[in-house]
Amino acid sequence: MTWAAADQQILRGSADSLTISWAGADGEPTTPPTTPEVTVMRADGTAVTTGTASGSESSWAFPLTAAHTADLDLLTVDWTVGSTTQSTSAAIVGGYYFTAAQARSQDSALKDTAGYETSRLLEARAQVEAEIEWCADVAFVPRFTVVQIEGNGTSELVGPAMPRRVRWGTINYGTNTRALTAPEIAALRLERSGEISLLAGSWPEHSIVTLGVEHGHDRPHPKIVAAAIILLRVRMNTGKSNFPDRAERYQLSEGGMMFLSMPGAYKIGIPEVDAAIATYGVRIPAVA
Question: DSSP class of residue 264?
Fold first, then answer.
């Protein structure tokens, strides 16, 4: 599983706007020579909508209706000017770990709306959610993910934990690809562990099975919410700590040594956050 924040999150069933900051060859914001034409595609390759962006200079937007966002999905958005196309992504999500208002109410430092602009706070929230889900190996709100799994000749494959629904799937054998039929998808058995099983037959050995899967909890546990807001504050204040970034221990002025919790591949490095992840996550620690 790959847990990564999309360029933008949109709540399922809500009207919203896709946005882009048009970039030049050096990656810096610039003004395109003409208005971008927009194509929005679902994760399975089907078109959602097309049209013309609105905006000026480097900032452009394109509207989505509630009908466009009715299902969880991962959208690819192509913004085209002449022969140049720049792509962004948007995740249609079933919820958030917390609102901006919740974050500000639980952390007095975040009440400073000038120092912690809402737009920046929401960007950091998406990063925090992705970090927690990577370490926990489970989503705490409904998500949509495309997974590719090698068939093993048995009836069982393992996808994301807490699968809610398989929306579509394909099986690829070399140059031959076929889509799973609606009855095949309806007959799949989904386990909380992530096991996706065929009730009859097997996943062909050495085939590549691609599935569009809705997964995740209905809502996060309050301890995950609290941990996410703690992590949000840390990420929004990177570089402002009194401790050197690379420090593993710190000599106290009054004597003695403070040992700092360190991050790892599946560890944030903040004890309260890591404790919540260990309690409610499903990742099995590696054994040396």
Answer: B
